[in-house]
Write a structure and sequence with these properties.
Distance between the termini: 48 Å
Structural class: mainly alpha
Organism: Triparma laevis f. longispina
Shape: extended
Pfam family, one: Aminotran_5
CATH class of the largest domain: Alpha Beta
Largest sheet: 3 strands, parallel
Keywords: Membrane, Transmembrane, Transmembrane helix
Number of domains: 4
Order of helices and strands: HHHHHHHEHHEHEHH
GO biological process, one term: molybdopterin cofactor metabolic process
Number of helices: 12
InterPro entries: Aminotrans_V_dom (IPR000192), PyrdxlP-dep_Trfase (IPR015424), PyrdxlP-dep_Trfase_major (IPR015421)
Radius of gyration: 29 Å
Helix content: 40-55%
């Protein structure tokens, strides 16, 4: 609403009510602004429908539970009045998951899987089942790999790089937008005499300035950027590095389309 229009309304208000207290004038002015703003702002459903129309892939429509709009309020009641932006680093469990976990914990007794006895056996069955499902998801040849459960990504990369056969001819290659857990791997590379090179995802995809190592080397490729959501062309990057005689079997067998 324009200032001139507001002024006319206030003049009309003054002619009817005389010298009303100043707070009354401010209240009327605020009410008029709110009414005007509501007229300009489309209803929430209209804006949501417009967003979905422009972004048809939004909503996890192909999942078993259906689109997110049909279950989010029930599965994540704690998010009704807040926005959670760290799901990539610390995903929140669903309400149904917590309920099933509590039910199973009350119904069954689970012990140390490294011990013996019925309670330990139940835990070992769950661990083995989880390991089998993860290996089958990421590899067409699960028998060729072992899966180690760790506390987080930093711990996993530390175990991987500390046991890798780096030499003075090895190169550890990582992109600019790497997580801090990747940057910490450089200490293990340095300790074993290797060197590292930082490249952009664009350089990796185009095959620009790819070094030719003289020994066993490692390339780290984040499939999706946590900040921007950009998905790297892993197949193309793997092809470029194979051209430099750098083996990358993980890229070949990982089912990246399932992410």
């Amino acid at each position: 609403m324009e200032i001139r229009t507001l002024g006319k309304v206030l003049e009309l208000f003054h002619s009817y009510f005389g010298s009303a207290p100043l707070p009354v004038y401010w209240s009327v002015l605020l009410l008029l602004c709110v009414i005007r703003a509501q007229r300009k702002t489309p209803p929430t459903n209209t804006r949501k429908n417009d967003f979905i129309r422009r972004n048809p892939k939004y909503g996890y429509k192909n999942t078993l539970k259906g689109p997110i709009s049909s279950w989010r309020s029930n599965e994540y009641p704690s998010l009704s009045f807040q926005i959670y932006l760290d799901n990539a680093g610390a995903a929140l469990p669903m309400k149904s998951q917590l309920e099933k976990e509590c039910e199973e914990g009350v119904r069954e007794c689970f012990g140390n899987p490294h011990s013996s006895g019925p309670s330990a056996g139940r835990t070992k069955v769950l661990v083995d089942e989880s390991r089998h499902r993860v290996l089958n998801h990421f590899s067409n040849r699960p028998r060729d790999y072992n899966l180690i459960f760790t506390s987080n990504c930093s711990s996993s990369l530390n175990k991987l790089t500390s046991s890798f056969s780096f030499t003075k001819n090895s190169i550890f290659i990582y992109p600019h937008n790497s997580h801090t857990s990747v940057l910490g791997c450089r200490e293990n590379v340095k300790r074993m005499g290797g060197r590292w090179k930082c490249m952009s995802i664009e350089e990796m995809e185009l095959g620009v300035d790819i070094p030719v190592p003289g020994g066993e080397s490692m390339v780290v490729i984040p499939v999706e950027c946590n900040f921007s959501g950009r998905v790297a062309d892993v197949s193309r990057i793997a092809k470029n590095f194979r051209g430099k005689k750098i083996e990358s079997r993980c890229c070949e067998y990982a089912k990246l389309n399932n992410f």
